[in-house]
Design a protein that fits this description.
Order of helices and strands: HHHHEEEEHEEEEEHEHEHEEH
Number of helices: 9
Bound molecules: 6-O-phosphono-alpha-D-fructofuranose
Strand content: 15-25%
CATH class of the largest domain: Alpha Beta
Shape: globular
CATH superfamily of the largest domain: Fructose-1,6-Bisphosphatase, subunit A, domain 1
Radius of gyration: 20 Å
Number of domains: 2
Length: 336
């Protein structure tokens, strides 16, 4: 076991060097993004002190207006990424339209999509929350990026990652060459390689879903969850139920321990609640790169051809065998 201290910046550059002819721009994108994430971490880790540091909308002890954390995170990423000259356009969960690079800054060949702070409603209960990002090469020729640059199918991603701000803060990312996890060492402000080449177990023993929605699920989902709750030692059932309600934390546990996370469509919301472009796609890329799977119930998430920037999708993601079995129950629904 090497005791080398490998920062995420070092890991990114080493990865870049393995691609002859790489320009270094891509590693600059990830480096700039890592800086934005450290700025977000600093605010998120103070969130519990909000009553001391001022409440949202009011001036804090420094005379600055306190912003909602997800607005703060959104602005922190945009400001860190808008001037490096590597991106032609961005898009965020917090903004209806695409986010253009200011006119006086150069435009690059990459596209960044992000959910700046997913699960932020949990922050008051000190529950882990997360940042999710997805990077593509532009499809437009030059100049300002376009909506088409931001609505490419997930299989075209060149990188994806998430940060889970929890008991420790971890950044997990892939550039298509495996999945690697970095834990923030607050004493030096660096993300250090702690989980090299993460592999999700082929099958787990945990399912993660909001069972409060049971009455709205279709029959296939109901039968699948009931199946997981039956006793059969031969197939490691009953499974345990774990649901944090903060997707990045639920996905992180699924990635490390195996099992399945599901947010199905239902009679109220046929497409479910989660977003395709900056939630399901990046997490699907990561899960597949770790040996798992991600489906919308009918097809691979990464094969879905997007039609709108903020479109929602049902999501069934986790261990390969668990997702495959779940799909059998879902498709039995349509075969009925
Ligand atoms: P529900 C958080 O608001 C979020 O977007 C995801 O992080 C999480 O998985 C989901 O919503 C929880 O939704 O309907 O179960 O409360």
């Amino acid at each position: 076991m090497s005791n080398k201290v490998i920062t995420i910046e070092r890991h990114i550059i080493d990865g870049e060097r393995q691609h002859p002819g790489a320009t270094g721009n891509f590693s600059a994108v990830l480096r700039d993004l890592t800086l934005a994430i450290k700025v977000i971490w600093r605010e998120v880790s103070k969130a519990g002190l909000v009553n001391i540091l001022g409440v949202v909308g009011k001036e804090n002890i420094h005379g600055d207006v306190v912003k909602k954390l997800d607005v703060f995170a959104d602005e922190a990423i945009y400001k860190a990424m808008d001037h490096g000259g590597h991106l032609c356009v961005m898009a965020s969960e917090e903004n209806e339209d695409v986010l253009h690079i200011p006119d006086d800054y150069p435009k690059g060949k990459y596209v960044l999509l992000f959910d700046p702070l997913d699960g932020s409603s949990n922050i008051d209960a000190n529950v882990s929350i997360g940042t999710i990002f997805s990077i593509y090469r532009r499809v437009s020729n030059s100049g300002k990026g376009t909506l088409a640059d931001c609505t490419q199918p997930g299989y075209k991603q060149i990188a994806a990652g998430y940060v889970v701000y929890g008991s420790s803060t971890m950044m997990v990312y892939t550039t298509g060459d495996g999945v690697h996890g970095f834990t923030l060492d607050p004493s030096i402000g660096e993300f250090l390689l702690s989980h090299e080449n993460i592999r999700v177990p082929k099958r787990g023993r945990i399912y993660s879903v909001n069972e409060g929605n049971y009455r709205y699920w279709d029959e296939g989902v109901k039968k699948y969850i009931k199946y997981l709750q039956e006793e059969d030692k031969g197939t490691s059932r009953p499974y345990s139920a774990r649901y944090i309600g903060s997707m990045v934390a639920d996905i992180h546990r699924t990635l490390l321990y195996g099992g399945i996370f599901l947010y199905p469509g239902d009679t109220r919301y046929p497409k479910g609640k989660l977003r395709l472009m900056y939630e399901a796609n990046p997490l699907a890329f990561i899960m597949e790169q770790a040996g798992g799977a991600a489906s919308n119930g009918d097809q691979r998430i990464l094969d879905v051809i997007p039609s709108t920037l903020h479109q929602k999708t049902p999501l069934f993601i986790g261990s390969e065998e668990d997702v495959a079995l779940c799909k059998e129950f879902l498709q039995a629904r349509t075969a009925r």
